[in-house]
Amino acid sequence: MPDRALEFDRVSKRYGDIVALDAVSFEVRPGELYGFVGSNGAGKTTAMRIALGVLAADGGEVRYAGSPVTHATRTRIGYMPEERGLYPKMKVLDQLVYLAELHGLAPNEAHRNAEYWIGKLGLTERRRDEVLKLSLGNQQRVQLAAALVHDPAVLVLDEPFSGLDPLAVDVMSQVLRDKASTGVPVVFSSHQLDLVERLCDRVGIIRSGRMVASGSVTELTADAATQLSVRAPRAQPGWAATLPWVRVVSDSGSETVLELESGADDQAVLAAALATGPVTEFSRRRPTLTELFRNVVSDNGAEREGAGA
Ligand SMILES: Nc1ncnc2c1ncn2[C@@H]1O[C@H](COP(=O)(O)OP(=O)(O)OP(=O)(O)O)[C@@H](O)[C@H]1O
């Protein structure tokens, strides 16, 4: 077990009849960005709240650096809750200093850190404003600053990217990368799978309270069927539909993505594409995280909430 990892070990939680987490295990290694993904109601927030001690698990435990997370170790976790937790009437700088002191920093250190993150997250102009007067995206930057201001050893962030504009996404991504590069385990939940694929070293997919896949995107897609991307500009729609052992994944007109069953002959596919006219691209392709997610979480939409409603 690597040092300073955050480990979820068979963590279970029920709310009455609802099994929110069913023996969920995964590990966020020091220095890695771990993306925690799943449909609405899959159990992400519940798992994160348990790590923070906001909720108690019914079974299993969360460990940091090999020891169960206690009240003392929790103060070393930087947490961004889904419901956000700022004092709306407090000014940005005052709030961050207060939160840093609450985590045990001396006043001058708290001030220094607050100013540092205000600068880093582009909030300098707003530092004397009350939080409620900020746009939602800027409030989210303050929320991230609040998670970082006490120099946490672990970062647990619930949907930190939701509602951010592309520039703020870049800022947030860079901050998380920088933090991970100092050896901190960083886990965040998100529904923006393209972003998770781009940013994360490893990904965990949770479905109905169970971890159904965990690893790098490359590892998770290694067993997937071979896919081909074909660009044949003069081909008519449906040109590939009748090819044997081939499934059409998508056909946007300009690009056709095909999945080959074992035994399918990719050269026969190329010949069929050439029969339609010029072929400008013919390449093997790895499924995206979004495609993988759709396969793993096969019934679309909300989980138990939708199913039980
Ligand atoms: N306080 C609660 N009381 C009862 N059921 C709850 C409570 N909190 C969560 N649940 C249920 O537990 C399950 C897991 O919810 P959770 O919020 O952890 O999912 P999530 O993956 O974070 O979803 P989302 O992506 O929508 O934020 C859901 O079925 C939810 O309805």
TrEMBL record:
<keyword id="KW-0547">Nucleotide-binding</keyword>
<dbReference type="GO" id="GO:0005524">
    <property type="term" value="F:ATP binding"/>
</dbReference>
<dbReference type="InterPro" id="IPR017871">
    <property type="entry name" value="ABC_transporter-like_CS"/>
</dbReference>
<keyword id="KW-0067">ATP-binding</keyword>
<feature type="domain" description="ABC transporter">
    <location>
        <begin position="6"/>
        <end position="233"/>
    </location>
</feature>
<dbReference type="InterPro" id="IPR050763">
    <property type="entry name" value="ABC_transporter_ATP-binding"/>
</dbReference>
<protein>
    <submittedName>
        <fullName>ABC-2 type transport system ATP-binding protein</fullName>
    </submittedName>
</protein>
<dbReference type="InterPro" id="IPR003439">
    <property type="entry name" value="ABC_transporter-like_ATP-bd"/>
</dbReference>
<dbReference type="GO" id="GO:0046677">
    <property type="term" value="P:response to antibiotic"/>
</dbReference>
<dbReference type="InterPro" id="IPR027417">
    <property type="entry name" value="P-loop_NTPase"/>
</dbReference>
<dbReference type="GO" id="GO:0016887">
    <property type="term" value="F:ATP hydrolysis activity"/>
</dbReference>
<dbReference type="InterPro" id="IPR025302">
    <property type="entry name" value="DrrA1/2-like_C"/>
</dbReference>
<dbReference type="Pfam" id="PF13732">
    <property type="entry name" value="DrrA1-3_C"/>
</dbReference>
<dbReference type="Pfam" id="PF00005">
    <property type="entry name" value="ABC_tran"/>
</dbReference>
<keyword id="KW-0813">Transport</keyword>
<dbReference type="InterPro" id="IPR003593">
    <property type="entry name" value="AAA+_ATPase"/>
</dbReference>
<dbReference type="GO" id="GO:0005886">
    <property type="term" value="C:plasma membrane"/>
</dbReference>
<keyword id="KW-0046">Antibiotic resistance</keyword>
